[in-house]
Write a structure and sequence with these properties.
Elements lengths: L29 H41 L3 H6 L1 H4 L2 H4 L3 H41 L2 H45 L7
Helix pairs in contact: 1-5, 5-6
């Protein structure tokens, strides 16, 4: 391909995204790398904590699923005098299995919600390591992309949590209003 400088009559060319070479002008500044390098051990530490919590939740979820599948506690559950008199439990032996399966699914969802940020933090720490070695803008972009994904996930989870709290508050007052309008008397 002919260089634009060899033909003075060619149209002007501008590379808006920088050149593809890794010149000194495109290297990330040492102070930026030092700042990110200072966070790398803490990012890795938090990632390991999230991985351990996620692994614990997966194991606990599996334990509850095995309990539900085995039916081990059905007899102990029925022989408990405080529970045996309750018609929901006494007449429905599958009720405990349903509770255990529901708990297993619940813990499985929280395991995913713990493992996904652990994965993002792990990738972020790896990207910082690559940036420290290469000093390239592309590796800085990769590191910041992983950090953005981590915070985006937490932002979405925060919005979902706020919505769930608002729904809970509305449901609480709706239940109170329904109870009052149906003539239910509250203890004084």
């Amino acid at each position: 391909m002919e260089s634009p400088l060899s033909n003075p009559y060619s149209s002007p060319v501008a590379n808006l995204f920088g050149s593809a070479t890794n010149s000194a002008a495109e290297a990330v500044s040492p102070s930026t790398i030092a700042q990110l390098a200072g966070t790398k051990p803490w990012v890795r530490f938090m990632s390991v904590i999230f991985w351990l919590a996620g692994l614990f939740l997966v194991l606990l979820s599996g334990f509850y699923a095995l309990l539900a599948a085995s039916g081990t506690f059905n007899n102990d559950f029925k022989s408990n005098p405080a529970i045996a008199g309750n018609p929901v439990f006494a007449n429905n032996p599958a009720f405990l299995a349903g509770i255990l399966i529901g708990t297993s699914v619940y813990l499985g969802v929280f395991a995913f919600l713990t493992i996904y940020p652990a994965l993002k933090l792990w990738k972020y720490a790896n990207s910082i390591g690559k940036l420290m070695a290469s000093r390239s803008i592309a590796d800085l972009d990769a590191a910041l992309t992983e950090q953005r994904r981590y915070w985006k996930f937490h932002g979405i989870m925060t919005l979902i949590g706020i919505c769930m709290v608002l729904i809970g508050i509305i449901a609480f007052f709706a239940l109170i209003f329904t109870a009052i309008s149906s003539g239910m008397k509250f203890p004084r």
